[in-house]
DNA sequence: CCAGAAAAGTTTCCCCTGTAAACATGGAGG
DNA sequence: CCTCCATGTTTACAGGGGAAACTTTTCTGG
């Protein structure tokens, strides 16, 4: 039993169980202000048990954030691959996947981008965040190579795109993109404004 | 003495003093995770005194956020009025003012846009946030009238612009807009991408 | 001018949280 | 079988938010 580190001793992979409980709590609530004791309680262990699996509360939060980035990366990557062929439409699909993720997992999304999950303090978290970012980067590079996107500095494109998508996700989570105000598809409309600047003129 | 509610009794406007202390703490730190007791301590009163001026901690946070929005509105409005005449340049000036505000008051900015300062729970906070948003709205309307910006739905333009500015502010605060990665003026470069879509073609 | 009354502050209290330390347990290897 | 270590549990402590009771000012009306 040495292939994975967390196997089954007393509880049977409490590490995973705690993460699952916490993820469940995050999914339910708009905020991620759960307490470590509550997680332990719902998992059916004593309030000190988590400390055998996570150095402190922040370590658990960072691990949750990391899982969130992995999931977001998968969601975005899948949206890109199964989307329409046009680069512009791929971009929209990826952005919508990110925004949908935020709306369906507001607590987790907020945690991922909060200062409490300090990416600098955890190489694994940083790596996961960069991998997610990489999905966007690769799309921009490919789109630039095939002439869909303008030949501007990739980092500038990436910063603009990422700011836009993340900003829209935030607005959407806060319910500030109401249809009666912004029209039938607010996200699409906002993305089109950016894409008109991003794409080459037709 | 019935014109304003908080005058001077024992302390002499403890209401304001608490806000000032908290603002000072917010300015110093990257995060706004201060405690109410710490604010009271630094103001030189007992830990229960604040409850005579704020219903609870959240009420204080909301008031701080409200002040933040007022300041941000002033900063952006001033940037617009004292900036160059071109609509496009005005937009850039306003955006840079917002981003600079975020960088100089990261704790306050994070508080303003965190879920803890629930705008729905406080009409005054909501009003202040809307007023700040109004600066952007009026600029877009004016720019559209004089033909600088495209005749797209104003809410769509606003959503895109706001998402972009707020997203860039977040990235800037997190130190993810480094010059060596994005070039000499990362914000400008990213804004230009958006503005190329926002402005009418030349 | 002098009671109240009400405002503003303080103390005390309770329950919660994060976290450390001491203690218990049970399964794996000698 | 027995011992060790990973895994849990109990106990303990500092600190926070907030309620309640008490005290001290300041204001107000008679």
From TrEMBL, chains A, B:
<dbReference type="InterPro" id="IPR025996">
    <property type="entry name" value="MT1864/Rv1816-like_C"/>
</dbReference>
<protein>
    <submittedName>
        <fullName>TetR family transcriptional regulator</fullName>
    </submittedName>
</protein>
<feature type="DNA-binding region" description="H-T-H motif">
    <location>
        <begin position="35"/>
        <end position="54"/>
    </location>
</feature>
<dbReference type="Pfam" id="PF00440">
    <property type="entry name" value="TetR_N"/>
</dbReference>
<dbReference type="InterPro" id="IPR009057">
    <property type="entry name" value="Homeodomain-like_sf"/>
</dbReference>
<dbReference type="GO" id="GO:0003700">
    <property type="term" value="F:DNA-binding transcription factor activity"/>
</dbReference>
<dbReference type="Pfam" id="PF13305">
    <property type="entry name" value="TetR_C_33"/>
</dbReference>
<keyword id="KW-0804">Transcription</keyword>
<keyword id="KW-0238">DNA-binding</keyword>
<dbReference type="InterPro" id="IPR001647">
    <property type="entry name" value="HTH_TetR"/>
</dbReference>
<dbReference type="InterPro" id="IPR050109">
    <property type="entry name" value="HTH-type_TetR-like_transc_reg"/>
</dbReference>
<dbReference type="InterPro" id="IPR036271">
    <property type="entry name" value="Tet_transcr_reg_TetR-rel_C_sf"/>
</dbReference>
<feature type="domain" description="HTH tetR-type">
    <location>
        <begin position="12"/>
        <end position="72"/>
    </location>
</feature>
<dbReference type="GO" id="GO:0000976">
    <property type="term" value="F:transcription cis-regulatory region binding"/>
</dbReference>
<keyword id="KW-0805">Transcription regulation</keyword>
